[in-house]
Amino acid sequence: MITLVRYELTKTYRKLRTYIGFGLIAVLIPLAYWGFSAAGDDMVRGMSRGLQQNFLFVGSLFNGWFVSNMVMNALFVHVPFLILLVAGDIFAGEATSGTYRILLTRPPSRTRIFSVKALSAAIYTYSLVFFLGAFSITLGLILFGHGDMFTMRDDGIAIIARGELWWRFLFAYLLAGGAMCVVAALGMLFSSFVENAVGPIVGSFAVIILFLILGNLPFDFFESIRPFLFTTYTDVWRKAFSDPIDLLSIGKDVLALSAFFLLFLGAAWAIFSRKDILS
Amino acid sequence: MIFLAAALFLVSASAPAQQNAGEILDGVIAQYESVHDYQVQISATINMKGLSVPPMNATMYFRKPDKVQLKSDGFAMLPRDAVGFNPAMFNKNDYDLVMQGSERIRSVECVKVKMLAKSDTLRLQRAMIYVDSKRSLIMRMDFDPGTGSSATADFTYERVDGKYSLPSRIDIEMDSPMHMQRPGQKSTSADKSKGGKARITMKYHGYMVNKGIPDSVFEANDAAAAPHGRN
């Protein structure tokens, strides 16, 4: 199994498209930070203007943690696309390159091959999410320094003490990685249908955009379908910055995401295990 | 004729009250006459719906007549109208003063003085101060921090170096400034009650009085000057 995973990972990380996501993050984050540095403390002041009428702010809340959080908020809508670049290619890529038949005529069973591909997709997903986290935090702290973090939540404003931020960010990225694994599973499901990777990538992303829009429309009808959209739970990572951390709510979201993950993966496995390889 | 006599009586009766209020304020300012400068550590906690902040620490520097500067190693947010509390805020020439009777505050008999700013450039526009006339200390201040909200600050004092009465604790209760609602977000009954009250406690400790504070402290860029007096 380990050998198979190693082969699959080698195959994944030898493809150029795997590095598109990493490259994009490596270019985008410095550019975003350059923009942030121009705005500086004005950003925080603008976000907390109502409070500053009554409170005097001593010291600065513009620091590496703040910009890392801002980047995570801004990029997290786009990260699914980067995940799908690899997950959407995972089966369709074999068909495109004509290796499906060779792969499936080898001794490992289809279930084992499927498991290995799912595992490698999850590893890629977590590697991209942790790269985003490590790169944005490291660069942010180098450029803008350390301090307490200002963040906006649905129910107001929070300032989190600097001592708590390391583990909160780690927890947030762990949760974010889990949410992105659901996206990867969706990509694998679409990838198991077709023989060209473009369809699964675009199709999965279209589904995500559709769900995001439906989930955010402020009408009663859409409120009722929200629990059935996996995108309702993909921002579970934000709850790592709530105070106190609502573990029950996080647990419910993780449970819902796990259900969607198993649903997509189960459907992908059902299709893959019965698939006729005609080319 | 009777009305004229009554009016003359009221005018003559209110003149000493105005004078008394001025004297009370003079007494408050006189308390701080021998305090030329001080620095003090402030620990603050804020309890407000819609706002989550850790306990904060800052150092406050004060120098006569009205220089106030705050510094923090990390970050601190402190109530504007209370943190810069100093006698220069209560210049009787800046306010119309009206005596409003007396009230017991924490078992201390206090006289109430209503202050109405003469100029709209003053930050503190309206306030009611409750002064312990025996010690000439402000025990409570009801004030309007702006935007129609109201606030009450309760002062507790300590004797510093055996001769200066300076605040050791200020408890503030004010209308919460947090009224946030994102577009498309439905307001529930719970949200409506969020306006609520904010409770802020500031504890002052480690006073260093009349030890001298260099000018550079009040010129530092990394500090915040507490607002007081005119806007």
Which descriptors apply to this entry?
heterodimer, A: 279 residues, B: outer membrane lipoprotein receptor (LolB), chain A, eleven-stranded antiparallel sheet, 4 helices, 46% strand, disordered N terminus
Describe this structure in words.
The complex is a heterodimer of chains A (279) and B (231). Chain A is mainly α. Chain A has one domain (2-272). Chain A has 13 helices and three strands; from the N terminus they run H-H-H-H-E-H-H-H-H-H-E-E-H-H-H-H. Chain A has a two-stranded antiparallel sheet with strand order 2-3. In chain A, strand 2 and strand 3 (156-160) form a beta hairpin. In chain A, helix 1 crosses helix 9 (110-144) and helix 5 (64-75) packs antiparallel against helix 9 (110-144). Chain A starts with a helix and ends in a 5-residue tail after the last helix. The model of chain A has no long low-confidence stretch (mean pLDDT 87). Helices cover 19% and strands 46% of the residues of chain B. Chain B is built from four helices and 13 strands. Chain B has helices spanning 2-31, 80-83, 189-192, 215-219; strands spanning 37-47, 51-52, 56-63, 67-71, 76-79, 95-105, 108-117, 126-132, 137-146, 149-160, 164-175, 197-209, 224-225. Chain B is globular and about 45 Å long. Mean pLDDT of chain B is 77; it is low at 1-19 and 180-185. Chains A and B meet through strand 1 and strand 3 of A and strand 2, strand 5 and helix 2 of B. Strand 3 of chain A pairs parallel with strand 2 of chain B, so a sheet runs across the interface.
